[in-house]
Backbone:
């Protein structure tokens, strides 16, 4: 089972042949710019397509704090995404209250633990929309 840095390295080295399909779902790589450091950080995240866009969830397993990658993209919404061999720039945004219920259902169908994570924390867990740039 791939996790963390090893997951990112194998995914990048194989154009997602290793790492895209994970635990009966699908994973993309999200690269954000550190809000304090300015460094690039790449995180493997479960995703689903939603029309032309890609959805990811800032769950951090139901932790009371948002994940670092989410804090980074709030500060710097221009991100890079890799889905299998497709690498592209995207604009990240948090789903609106109107959009979120349908998007949340889409994500919970692929990873039912998201519903459990939400019960563990008082913070609303964001759904992030990644819109391909240009």
Residues:
């Amino acid at each position: 089972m791939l996790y963390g840095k090893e997951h990112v390295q194998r995914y990048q080295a194989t154009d997602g042949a290793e790492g895209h399909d994970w635990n009966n779902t699908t994973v993309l790589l999200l690269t954000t710019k550190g809000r304090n450091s300015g460094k690039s950080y790449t995180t493997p995240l479960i995703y689903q397509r939603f029309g032309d866009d890609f959805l990811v969830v800032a769950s951090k397993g139901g932790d009371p704090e948002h994940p670092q990658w989410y804090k980074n993209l709030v500060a710097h919404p221009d991100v890079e995404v890799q889905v299998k061999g497709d690498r592209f720039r995207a604009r990240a945004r948090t789903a609106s209250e109107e959009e979120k219920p349908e998007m949340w259902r889409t994500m919970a169908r692929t990873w039912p633990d998201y519903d459990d994570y939400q019960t563990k924390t008082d913070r609303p867990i964001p759904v992030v929309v990644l819109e391909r740039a240009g």
About this structure: Strands lie at 21-22, 25-33, 40-46, 48-50, 53-57, 78-83, 86-94, 127-132. The radius of gyration is 14 Å. The chain has one domain: 4-132.
